[in-house]
């Protein structure tokens, strides 16, 4: 399957000042709804569901989940029914409206019930032909899809930067680096507090973390939390580059890249690739920060 994710030079005064050669991998351009790493993480899950003769995809997520929306669209385009268990009290927002528009069935469950995903999956009527895809598309099939990004690259890099939520994307990228015998360092930026758990998640998926650095101080208070300096950074970056980012994932990871460059943490002339993991529909819930 052909995908469109150009690898573009990224221009910014800071990169010139620090003699860094920065590129951006535009996974955000893969698809407007099956965006970024979610496309890669779904690929082998959907192939597996098809090969097992399943007709329904069941998944889990928060009310603004990029993964749930991606799955709703992917399911519709490949003829699966889709069901998502949404964490928390019933709410309405544009992401959930679009999920329904794609024909997805949404079931709101309390935070307590949400914890036992296996039980929720089994509680679903007619689950014989249902296939479970974990929150965020995480898991070995997800990592396998993300590993393929490395075969698309036109150049070699000293560093690859990526945001991490579950760590599946980072795990896949690390596997890809190992597969291609690359000495690139993977710079992982967890977007949740206490982000070192990402390392364990990566190891659990069979990925090496010997080639990784974890930058755990760029969570800005926790998942989907923001601070004024992050908002200002996102605003400036979008204005200076014409590339849209959002503050939950790509904003934090790019903030880390800029902060580390300012601290001269990379050698002059370093080649750096930033993975734009997409997820721009999340902005629909955050636009009030930018007023
Ligand atoms: C889901 C998501 C991530 C996190 O990916 P993981 O594989 O869970 O670490 C990063 N960026 C964006 C834009 C996302 O939507």
From TrEMBL:
The active site is at 65 (nucleophile). The keyword Cell inner membrane does not apply. Residues 14-278 form the Tryptophan synthase beta chain-like PALP domain. One of its GO terms (molecular function) is D-cysteine desulfhydrase activity. Its cofactor is pyridoxal 5'-phosphate. It holds the Pfam family PALP. Belongs to the ACC deaminase/D-cysteine desulfhydrase family. This is 1-aminocyclopropane-1-carboxylate deaminase. It comes from Sphingobacterium nematocida.
């Amino acid at each position: 399957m052909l995908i469109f994710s150009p690898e573009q030079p990224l221009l910014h005064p800071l990169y010139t000042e620090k003699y860094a050669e920065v590129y951006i991998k535009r996974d955000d351009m893969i698809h407007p709804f099956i965006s970024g790493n979610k496309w890669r993480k779904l690929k082998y899950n959907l192939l597996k569901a098809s090969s097992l003769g399943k007709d329904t995809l069941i998944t889990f997520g928060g009310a603004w989940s990029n993964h749930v929306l991606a799955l709703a669209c992917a399911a519709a385009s490949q003829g699966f029914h889709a069901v998502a268990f949404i964490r928390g009290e019933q709410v309405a927002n544009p992401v959930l409206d679009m999920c329904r528009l794609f024909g997805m069935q949404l079931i709101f469950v309390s935070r307590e019930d949400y914890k036992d995903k296996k039980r929720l999956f089994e509680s679903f009527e007619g689950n014989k032909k249902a296939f479970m895809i974990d929150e965020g598309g995480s898991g070995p099939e997800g990592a396998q899809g993300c590993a393929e990004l490395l075969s698309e690259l036109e150049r070699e890099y000293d560093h690859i930067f990526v945001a991490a939520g579950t760590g599946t994307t980072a795990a896949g990228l690390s596997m890809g680096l190992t597969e291609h015998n690359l000495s690139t360092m993977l710079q992982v930026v967890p977007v949740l507090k206490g982000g070192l758990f990402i390392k364990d998640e990566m190891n659990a998926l069979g990925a090496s973390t010997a080639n990784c650095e974890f930058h755990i101080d760029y969570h800005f208070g926790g998942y989907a939390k923001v601070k004024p300096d992050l908002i200002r950074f996102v605003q400036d970056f979008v204005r200076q580059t014409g590339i849209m980012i959002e503050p939950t994932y790509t904003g934090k990871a790019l903030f880390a890249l800029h902060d580390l460059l300012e601290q001269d943490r990379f050698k002059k002339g370093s080649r750096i690739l930033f993975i734009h993991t997409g997820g721009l529909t999340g902005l629909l819930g955050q636009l009030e920060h930018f007023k």
